[in-house]
Every structure is written in C-alpha cells, then in structure tokens.
Design brief:
Layout lengths: L1 H42 L10 E4 L2 E4 L1 H8 L6 E7 L4 H17 L4 E7 L6 H11 L5 E5 L4 H8 L9 E5 L4 E4 L5 H12 L1
Parallel strand pairs: 2-5, 3-4, 4-5
Antiparallel strand pairs: 1-2, 3-6, 6-7
C-alpha cells in the first residue's frame, strides 16, 4: 500500500510543477502583451495640432511655426527669398547686406524678401529691434519663436541641419534650399535660376 501513495505524491508534485509552469508562462505572456501594447502606443506618433500664433512686439511679428508656414507656401506670381538668421550669428549678419540689396533692386520685380530672425525671445527688445533700426533693414523681418525645433526645421526643409544662415528660394514652379552664406553676386545668381 505504501507504493501507490508514493506514486500519488510524485503525481501531485508533477501536477503542482505543471501548474506553476503554466501560470508563469501565462503571466509572462501577459507581461509581453503589456510591453507590446506600451511599445505600440509609443510607436504611434500623436501629433498635437498647434494653432497659428502671432504676437506683436512693437511693429515686429513674433510667430510660431504654424503662423510662419503660409510664408513658406505661397502660390502667387512672386519669387520668394526667405533667409533664416540671428543677430548673434556673425555669418548671418555679414550676409544681410546681400539680402538688403537684393530686396532694394527687386521690389518691383515680383520678388519678395523675408528675413526670419531666430533671435532668442528674451533678446528681441534689447538686441533685435535696435539691430533692425540701426541697420535700417527694409525687407520684412519676423521672429520665429517655436520650441518644437525638430518640427519646424524639417518643415522648412528635410535636409536642414538647423544651422544658420539658411535660405529658401521658391516660386510656383520650383523650390531651393541653401544652408550657407551668400555674397550678393552668389545670391543674385541663385535667384536668376528661378526667374528663367
């Protein structure tokens, strides 16, 4: 009689072991499912829709990227030259006279020059506005103030590293992006390619 009892204990032990194994497998599958679900949620990009925002500081427009986008997408009869710059960027400041001259010579030729300042918001009144006045900048100047740099850098051009100066030239037919400084001659030469 003692032999069947030992077999029952062995069976009981095997059954308990199987139950423990099955439970751990089920539990680990649930954990994997939770991790997969969590990863799936992370992988799905939820884009937050940000409305256009324009703030005025004196006569200067301060825009988020949504408010700047229309300047980058005009479908009119003009050729647009948009320069991204800042007062703290020496190559940017050095090339500004080229954009000023291009603007002055082409005001009546369906060519529109826009200077997009990337100056820091806390330096707009102390640095940027005095710079614009002291240098008598005639093209329209706006400030881009948007913390989502990845969005607006890629939104301007997918090849842009974010370095300045950078310039977009476009019209209804074509678009060019230049991550470099220009002399007036170089800038005018690039512009002519869009006019012919």
């Amino acid at each position: 009689m003692s032999i069947p009892f030992l077999n029952f204990n062995k069976m009981k032990s095997k059954i308990i072991t199987l139950i423990i194994l099955a439970t751990s497998v089920l539990y680990s599958c649930k954990e994997v499912s939770k991790k997969e679900a969590k990863q799936e949620t992370v992988d799905k990009k939820v884009e937050v829709i940000v409305p256009p925002k324009i703030e005025m500081i004196g006569d200067l427009k301060v825009l988020n990227f949504e408010a700047l986008k229309p300047y980058l997408e005009k479908q009119d009869d003009k050729t647009h030259v948009i320069n991204f710059w800042a007062t703290w960027c020496k190559p940017c400041v050095e090339e500004l006279p080229a954009f000023e001259k291009l603007h002055a010579e082409n005001k009546d030729n369906n060519i529109e020059v826009l200077l997009v300042s990337l100056d820091f918001p806390n330096e707009i009144e102390t640095q940027l506005i005095p710079f614009i006045k002291d240098n008598k900048l005639d093209p329209e100047v706006v400030v881009l103030d948007d913390p989502n740099q990845n969005k607006w850098i890629n939104g301007v051009d997918k090849s842009w590293s974010g370095a300045i100066p950078a310039t977009v030239i476009y019209n209804k037919k074509e678009r060019g992006f230049f991550e470099r400084s220009f002399t007036y001659e170089e800038l005018n030469s690039e512009l002519q390619k869009f006019l012919n």
